[in-house]
Amino acid sequence: MLTTWLAPGGAERQLVRLAGGLRECGWRVRVTSAMDLEPLGEKVLVEELAALGIPPRSLRIAPGAPSPRALPRLVRELREYRPHVLTSFMFHANLLGRLAAPLARVPVVVSSVRTDNFGGALRYRLLAATDGLAHATVANSRRVADALVSRGVVAPNRIHAIPNAVPATPPPADDELSALRAELGAPAGEFVWMAVGNLFEPKDYPTLLRAFARVVEAGAPGVLRIVGRGHLEDSLRALRAELGLQERVEFLGYRPDAARLLHAADAYVLSSQSEGAPNALMEAMLAGRAVVATSVGGVPELVRDGENGLIVPPRDPDALARGMLRVARAPAEERARMGEAARAAVVASHDPTAVVDRWEKLFEDLLIVNGGRSGAAR
């Protein structure tokens, strides 16, 4: 399995879950990061893989511009390991894997695209030009899969949609819940909004901050806690000050326990302008939180407007504020009903065992068609 890097993120976490699930099913699994592991600020995924018995390897490429050394290094890695299937996650890994696999005579190549917007026309053209080098491309939602086909990036006969695997976390006991609320710095009785995601452009936190300012102005005060880190943090802190939200908005940085922390929130908000199938949104739904989310990527496949959450258009702070106000002003019983419906929806379609089974079937089918044999990689 090949990834661009192993910094904490949704795509990377899905790779780790898939790697662990496949290993439990008897597959030989190796995970390689194109980028060097040493500069990572947070190595939680590296540590998780090691704990699963899959210590990750690296092509030792420095972060930044692509390196011509990556291709020969990956070819050597593949020739040494001789995998039956090469699965890649994220754009650079997809492109690199497609180029290296034929040189190393890997029988089956499966790319995975985890978002509906991954960086402009040039990237779309490069993936379209190399589509024939992959035997299949997996999207994490039907909507993303359809977009890839309609844009000519992936041939219709090579696209597959397999959802993210999202394990449920047990709800905390009352005393632990109180401790989690205290960690959030939320006064007793204060309505707590939470958003989780790296502080990068696709998450569109400026729209969230502007929407939350409108919520406060409308007389529905609460607090907003944002979990994640990234290069936009300074500009977002400046916008928070400009909007007068210093007392109501806190940036919590990276939290490995974000899924557990969600139980302490009253509601969850997603303001993204592009997505695939957002992990944190699904974790919030599994925690039984009422959610307000933008209609991007696979979100409409998860959230049924008015039933298990609210859907609003992206890049529209007024619409997002209206959705947040509706949830904040709803009776607690209505929010609980919405949250329970949200939990049921995710449990029904994102069970980790069922997701790994679908990946296994895809691999086995491709191995048979392309000259391998089912079970050869075990």
Automatic annotation (TrEMBL):
The Glycosyltransferase subfamily 4-like N-terminal domain sits at 8-167
Q: What is the superkingdom listed in this entry's lineage?
A: Bacteria
Q: Which organism is it from?
A: uncultured Gemmatimonadota bacterium
Q: Which PANTHER family match?
A: BLL3647 PROTEIN (PTHR12526:SF636), GLYCOSYLTRANSFERASE (PTHR12526)
Pfam families per record: Glyco_transf_4, Glycos_transf_1
The molecule here is called: Glycosyltransferase
- GO molecular-function terms, A-Z: glycosyltransferase activity
Residue ranges of every copy of the Glycosyl transferase family domain listed in the record: 180-343
Output the InterPro entries linked to this UniProt entry. Answer: Glyco_trans_1 (IPR001296), Glyco_trans_4-like_N (IPR028098)
